[in-house]
Amino acid sequence: DTAVSQTPKYLVTQMGNDKSIKCEQNLGHDTMYWYKQDSKKFLKIMFSYNNKELIINETVPNRFSPKSPDKAHLNLHINSLELGDSAVYFCASSQLNTEAFFGQGTRLTVV
Amino acid sequence: GENVEQHPSTLSVQEGDSAVIKCTYSDSASNYFPWYKQELGKRPQLIIDIRSNVGEKKDQRIAVTLNKTAKHFSLHITETQPEDSAVYFCAASKGGGADGLTFGKGTHLIIQP
């Protein structure tokens, strides 16, 4: 009965490949997010999405795109992976302006 | 957009002593300020939060204070224990839309036995 679950936990892939990370929440939250945590542990929001709006952090390359088939899912697609994309990616969900619950993270390594 | 500064980046305290982590934010419209604890290899988890209509909140050994005028907020941990060792993040958001949280850069808290 995990609240926010994301798969896979580890992802190793070659430069230039396209990959996806899946996220699901069973909390009934309206808003889901993707955060990137780099090697210095800095947590930065990439996207936030509810059924009304998608907010994209302007620093995120357009190779990254969120896809939400329904309110409980927000998947992250990454095209043409680069070495600098290596990081831990966290999915999260919340009701607006309340506690965000995080998934366990996906450690992406691009080689 | 919002900018959150967090200090110090590393804090080492003796077990049993108190620890204080400070954050400042830039957007006066921010009204929700959570603190997250992240243990090595784990997900961030909320430990305490405060809203802009409150100046202080306490939960056992943890307390948070907020000064809206100065736009800063602090985390206080008393009687520190080894299990308090982790990275702590402050964050701010202003709601109203799906803005998400703007995080500080984190504080690595080390509890010395």
Protein described:
The complex is a heterodimer of chains A (111) and B (113). By secondary structure, chain A is mainly β. Chain A has no helices and 11 strands. In chain A, the strands form 2 sheets. In chain A, strands 2, 4, 5, 6, 9, 10 and 11 form a 7-stranded mixed sheet that branches. Chain A has a 4-stranded antiparallel sheet with strand order 1-3-8-7, with no helix packed on it. In chain A, a hairpin with a 2-residue loop joins β7 and β8 (73-78). The model of chain A has no long low-confidence stretch (mean pLDDT 92). With 113 residues, chain B is an all-beta fold. Chain B contains no helices and 11 strands. In chain B, a hairpin with a 4-residue loop joins β7 and β8. Chain B is globular. Chain B starts with a strand and ends with a strand. The mean pLDDT of chain B is 94. The chains are: A mainly beta (111), B mainly beta (113). Chains A and B meet through β4 and β5 of A and β4, β5 and β10 of B.
Q: Describe the biggest sheet of chain B?
A: 6 strands, mixed
What is the succession of H and E elements of chain A?
EEEEEEEEEEE
Tell me what portion of residues of chain A adopts beta-strand conformation.
Answer: over 45%
- How much is the radius of gyration of chain A in Å? 13 Å
Low-confidence stretches of chain A: none
Mean pLDDT of chain A: 92
Mean pLDDT of chain B, to the nearest integer, reads 94
Approximate shape of chain A = globular
Task: Please trace the helix and strand order of chain B, writing H or E for each element.
Answer: EEEEEEEEEEE
Distance from first to last alpha carbon of chain B: 41 Å
Number of strands of chain B: 11
Oligomer: heterodimer
Q: Tell me the structural class of chain B.
A: mainly beta
Could you say which structural class the secondary elements and strand pairing of chain A correspond to? Answer: mainly beta
- Would you report the number of β strands of chain A? 11
Radius of gyration of chain B: 14 Å
